[in-house]
Amino acid sequence: MAILSFLLVDEWNKQQGELEIGSEVTVNGELYIRDPENPQYRPQINQDSYWATVTNADGKTTNLERSHLRLRKLHTIASPAVSDDKKHDRFAMQHFTTHELEWVETYMSSNFPNDLPAGKITHLHLHSDNATQHFKSTGAINYFTSLIHDRGGPSNCSYVWSFGAPGHGKGTFDGIGGVLKNTIHGLIKGTKGSNQGIDGTESGYITTPKDVCDALKSRFEMDKVQNRRRKGGKHSIDYYNIRYYGATENPVRRPDNEEFEHLEKISEWCWLALVSGSAQWSATEHCIYECTSSSNLSSTMYSFNKRSCAKVRGVDAQRAIATATAQKATRNEMACKLTVGSWVLFKSPDNDEQPIWLGRTVGRADWNDACILKNNTTRANVIDGAAIPGKTYAINVQWYTQKVIGVLEYVIEGGDSAIPVVQSNSSLLVVAHDEHMTRVLGNNVRVPRRRAVRSNQSDDFEWTTRQNLQTSEGEWYRREYANAYRMDQSVYDLAMDQWVHWRE
Q: What pLDDT digit, counting tens, does each position of 48-80 carry?
């Protein structure tokens, strides 16, 4: 939640007109006259000016000419952020702030151009309640100082950040946040006693974070709501900018939990290597071109190799290590209890459309008909092309994919050409129970407990009866191809929560 306010220069420059009781003014304030040739121009502040309020004749008063009074009329914007991102950290704060500043600059340029002569906000005073997690000084101050780079630099910008004591005092942002929460609670309660849906939402109800955002926009951002809003209050909101940040719609970007190390082949750094920004190198190898030495004028004398390594020192390093160790133990505990036919949810390595992969465990003959195999060594083993780290489990998995992206209905991956693959439990998130997976199409088919050889017979040939009361692998794949399953939303949410707090 952010509250943004700025003085309206057109109201400030007025030298005539009535002033309402309670209006805040600056007496003998300097006029702000825009210089078209110098967007950075600011008038010299009158040191004799002072703040005052307009009142009636009761009490101590001073009569002043209207031309000496500069009206301090604020335009206030509430900018709530609605997100399905459950990790409220510095990266979320920075992501929200960046988009809020870009939006308010566009808003001011369109509606209040005289208040933004340079086209960018060059004077900003930000106050935060210094919450313990997302306003940590180590990241927040560094980010805040970077905001001036594309706004004219330190010579043209004046950015100030004020911190409050954590947990002490409340502000307008707390009040507006409470109003928004109570509004959603009221809308949800209203649907229980009425057949009318909730305006603005696609389904008519609150089922997703996107529905929350749409409902709030419908209630607070519509023009008719803006026109009837109470004006003149000390903490009134003139405009609401409600934004949604989803997994696929403007998601919060976070760096991987790893550091990069560049190994130099020559024991000497050159100036070009120092200023070329090694942290931004994306390739595993990098050459510094036009790099020369007094003894060797080769154009590619300096070359570097890049490799990833675990972060073991610095801010939050030990906490990250402890979390990763605990999560590894949890994944091993889940894997060791798997039986043939278990539903498993894995973290997708790079699939933005399906961040969660769904699979089902299948037995292997060379694993004594089991679906898991533990790597008891301390080194990584490779099984069917899959790297299995030491002291972890290999899982034989048949993947399932969503019939429609975004809908939690799954069919077997690969269709009639499906084949199980070996997967490390290093990316295992959740083990789902049978009651969490509902078959919505097809017939019940038991997963084979042994890995029989697939039949080479054509689809038109009648399949043989089951052998030893077990479903043959070929028949299972043929029948499973026609099945579809619906995943319970609670299981998917649990997997996404594990995905957000992931540690390798």
A: 888 888 886 666 667 788 888 889 988 999 999
Supply the pLDDT for residue 191: 80
- 242 contacts 213 by C-beta, under 8 angstroms: yes
- CB-based contact 500:87 (threshold 8 Å): yes
* pLDDT recorded at residue 326: 75
pLDDT tens per residue across span 16-33:
888 888 888 888 888 887
Strand runs labelled E in 129-258: 158-163, 239-240, 243-245
Question: Furthest-apart CA pair in the chain: how many Å?
Answer: 104
Q: Which two tokens stand for residue 496?
A: 């996404």
Residue 350 burial (CB < 10 Å; 0-12/13-18/19+)?
A: exposed
Tens-digit pLDDT profile for residues 227-252:
444 444 455 788 899 999 988 888 88
Q: For the chain, how big is the Rg over CA atoms in Å?
A: 31
The reply to whether the predicted model has a pTM over 0.85 is no
- Measured between alpha carbons, how far apart are the two ends of the chain, in Å? 32
| DSSP-assigned beta bridge partners for residue 437 | 487
What's the DSSP call for residue 123?
A: E
Tokens of 37: 């040739």
Q: What angle do CA 50, 56, 62 make, to 5 degrees?
A: 40
- For 464-490, what is the HEC assignment? CCCECCECCHHHHHHHHCCCEEEECHH
Whose CA is closest to 165, among 192, 193, 127?
127
> In whole angstroms, what is the distance from residue 269 CA to residue 303 CA?
10
pLDDT, residue 258, reads 44
Nearest partner of 102 among 8, 4, 220, judged by Cα: 4
Comparing C-alpha atoms, which of 88, 175, 76, 84 is closest to residue 132? 88
Q: Which is higher by pLDDT, 193 or 249?
A: 249
At residue 257, the pLDDT reads 47
Residue whose token pair is 């290590």 = 321
Strands 409-412 and 393-402: antiparallel
CA dist 29 and 23 (Å) reads: 15
